[in-house]
Design brief:
8 helices; 0% strand; 61% helix; mainly alpha; 174 residues
Length: 174
């Protein structure tokens, strides 16, 4: 990023869009002004997708279109997320998507673990599929410190890889 905080390159702008997407995918809602601003910043940085100028150019009164256009921008940038119809399958698919984002280096492992635990595991409950991340986070909060890992990001990234191995890709494409 540049000193002004605006993305200086298209790659930085795509990462900024992706960071918004990490939280947006859970309930598909975000402040429309934020989505419009990030789209405008991406355009200025040189990102080129068909829906990006449409999102960046929304006027007051058209903000209700921002969420749908943001989803299209994510698809066009190659990291869209479309959960299966079944609620629980969708939750596992969401955990898998976040784990893939961690494993790919696009989502901070601590932030990703928090999303998986708070937004999926707490609602889903104990499960074989989510156990790698749940166990990894438990090791971080072990009061005795016996299992506390030395390199936390690497520890959580390994857990994300294990989670990917346990949760099959959804039957409907992401």
């Amino acid at each position: 990023m540049t000193t002004s905080g605006a993305p200086g390159t298209a790659a930085e702008a795509v990462q900024e869009v992706r960071e918004i997407a990490h939280r947006w995918v859970y309930n598909r809602r975000a402040d429309p002004d934020l989505l419009i601003r990030v789209a405008l910043r991406a355009l200025i940085a040189g990102v080129d997708t068909p829906s990006l100028p449409l999102l960046a150019g929304l006027f007051r009164g058209e903000e209700d279109q921002a969420s749908e256009l943001f989803g299209q921008v994510m698809d066009e940038l190659g990291f869209g997320f479309h959960p299966p119809e079944d609620y629980w399958e969708g939750q596992l698919a969401l955990a898998r998507w976040w784990a893939a984002e961690i494993a790919g280096g696009w989502l901070d492992p601590l932030d990703g673990a928090e999303l998986i635990i708070e937004d999926v595991a707490e609602a889903y409950g104990a499960s074989e599929e989510l156990a790698p991340m749940v166990d990894a986070v438990r090791a971080l909060t072990d009061p005795a410190g016996q299992a506390y890992p030395y390199d936390i990001p690497a520890h959580l990234t390994r857990a994300a890889h294990e989670l990917l191995a346990r949760i099959p890709p959804p039957t409907t494409p992401l």
